# Entry
Amino acid sequence: MLLFPAIDLKEGKAVRLLQGRMEDSTIYAANPVDVAKDFESQGAEYLHMVDLNGAFTGKPVNDEIIRRIVGSVSLKIQVGGGIRTMERITELLELGVDRVILGTIAVKNPELVAEAARRYGRRVIVGIDAKDGLVAVQGWAETTEMRALDLGKAMKIVGVQSVVFTDIARDGMMLGLNLESTVQMAQETGLSVIASGGITTLDDLRSVQTEVLKGVSIEGAITGKALYSGAFTLREALEAAHAEGIAGE
# Structure
């Protein structure tokens, strides 16, 4: 199982939100480049980044920081937040990002997602954010009537291979991962799923890894607030994610 430490960007700083609310943000680092370097020094190979300003406004705000991070570490970086045009997808990939995460447009313009998947293959993934089983968009500010599972199935049909699945109610709240819904997303859609939202303890990561060892198509897990709050170290998280000899891809 892959482990993705997370950096959420707001106005050039590394922050964490509670349940996606921009007004409930905590600044963890004024210089996110230092955070990325620290993750790399602790053994990370991957990094998950979100342009929070972009997610809410639909316009890139933190590109300079993203560019600096890409140029400062050798991590494979996936970036989401406000990516709603083919031009933006291409721009980020040409910047050196490994994968882009599409969110709102998966609901509002699935044809664009299909074209992006045809053009860029595995480098395009979709973020499915759920609140009570329903998809939320626009930086989680708007809940739709579409079931998260139905969106997952639709994305599989248009050629998407992987999704980041987040239970908004758990995100940033240190309440534990919604493992049942994560497993259901993998099993019912046939997608490779990255678990996100609420990972609080090493046992949460071990629980995900147990499902991976059973053959469930969970690609990895994202952890953010637990790292920043000191619940566990990145090295400890990597050990939990790679338990029983499972490491890398």
Remarks:
- The chain has one domain: 2-243.
- The first helix runs from residue 32 to 41.
- Residues 245-249 have pLDDT under 50 and may be disordered.
